[in-house]
Design a protein that fits this description.
With 278 residues, the chain is α/β, with parallel strands linked by helices. The protein is built from 9 helices and 9 strands.
C-alpha cells in the first residue's frame, strides 16, 4: 500500500485526478489529510519525539496517533506493515504569522532532512507558496512560467488563492486538469476529456520540473532527474526568500512527484515550444 498524506482537501482533489490519469491500474493507494499546516506538523512531531534522532519511530504510527488526537480515525485500521511507501505534500505558506519567517524556515529545513525516503520515514514535497501554485499559469503550455514569483508582502496583503484566480487563464474552471466524466458523456467524449487533462498535466510536469532546475541550477530545461526537495528549498531561500524583495518562486510539487515517480516517460510526446520530448 502507498500512503499519501496531504495538508488539506484541495490537495486530495488534485491527487484523485492524478490517480485516475496516471495510476489507473494501480490499486492499494490510501489517502489521508492532516488538515493543518507544515509548521503545526513540526510541533506535533516534536511532541511525539519523532525528530532529532528518533528515526526508529514509524511514521504511520505517529500520524495515526496525531489524527486520533483530533478525532480523525482515517488511519485507525491501517497497519504499519501494510504501507510500503509514504509521500507527504504540504505548503510553504511563507506568509504564516504565528512564528518568524526564520523560525519557520528552520523548521521546514529540519523536516526536509527528516522526510527523505518514501520507503522509510516518508518523502516530503513542498508547494511554493501553496498548492494553488498548480493553477498559477496562463494558457498551457505557459513558456513564461519559469519567471513567476510572488512576494511575501503580496501574500500578506492578498490571499494567494485570490491572486491565482485573477491570474489564471482558466479562472475558477478546473476541468482542464480535474478529470470530470459525466453520465451523458459517450466514449469518444470521455476519451477526449481524458486526453486533454493528461496532456495539460504533462505540460505542468515539464514547466515545474524545468523551473525547479532553473531554481537550483539556473537552467530552464528538463533535467535527467528531478532536483532534491531540500536543494529546491535551500535555493529558494538563497535566491528568492532571503533577498531584499523576500519573494518565492512559484512552484508545484505534484508535477515534480510525477516526474520522479515515472521518470521521463511521463512526458513523452509533449510539444513544448515546437520541440517534441522523446
Amino acid at each position: 500500500m502507498i500512503l499519501f498524506i496531504f495538508e488539506g482537501k484541495v490537495d486530495k482533489t488534485y491527487f484523485e485526478s492524478i490517480k485516475r490519469l496516471f495510476f489507473p491500474e494501480k490499486s492499494g493507494t490510501f489517502v489521508c489529510t492532516y488538515n493543518s499546516n507544515i509548521y503545526s506538523l513540526y510541533t506535533k512531531l516534536q511532541e511525539h519525539d519523532t525528530l532529532h534522532g528518533m528515526l526508529e519511530v514509524n511514521t504511520v504510527s505517529v500520524f495515526k496517533e496525531i489524527l486520533l488526537e483530533k478525532g480523525d480515525e482515517t488511519l485507525k485500521d491501517i497497519r504499519e506493515d501494510e504501507v510500503s511507501e509514504i509521500y507527504l505534500f504540504f505548503d510553504y505558506d511563507f506568509q504564516e504569522k504565528a512564528r518568524t519567517l526564520e523560525e519557520n524556515n528552520k523548521r521546514l529545513s529540519e523536516l526536509l532532512e527528516y522526510f527523505t525516503d518514501e520507503t522509510g520515514t516518508g518523502k516530503l514535497y513542498i508547494n511554493y507558496p501553496m498548492v494553488e501554485s498548480l493553477r498559477y499559469t496562463k494558457q498551457l503550455p505557459d513558456n513564461d512560467y519559469w519567471q513567476y514569483a510572488v512576494t511575501r508582502q503580496k501574500c500578506k496583503e492578498e490571499s494567494f488563492k485570490h491572486q491565482v484566480h485573477e491570474f489564471s487563464f482558466y479562472g475558477a474552471n478546473l476541468e482542464y486538469i480535474i478529470l470530470t466524466i459525466k453520465s451523458a458523456d459517450n466514449e469518444a467524449k470521455k476519451q477526449e476529456k481524458t486526453d486533454t487533462a493528461k496532456q495539460n498535466w504533462r505540460y505542468l510536469i515539464v514547466m515545474n520540473v524545468s523551473k525547479s532546475n532553473y531554481i537550483c541550477n539556473d537552467k530552464n530545461e528538463i533535467p535527467d532527474e528531478a532536483d532534491n526537495q531540500k536543494d529546491i528549498f535551500d535555493n529558494q531561500l538563497s535566491k528568492y526568500v532571503e533577498t531584499e524583495d523576500c519573494k518565492v518562486a512559484i512552484l508545484n510539487a505534484f508535477p515534480i512527484f510525477l516526474f520522479e515517480y515515472f521518470g521521463k516517460k511521463v512526458i513523452e510526446r509533449v510539444n513544448i515550444e515546437n520541440s517534441i520530448i522523446e
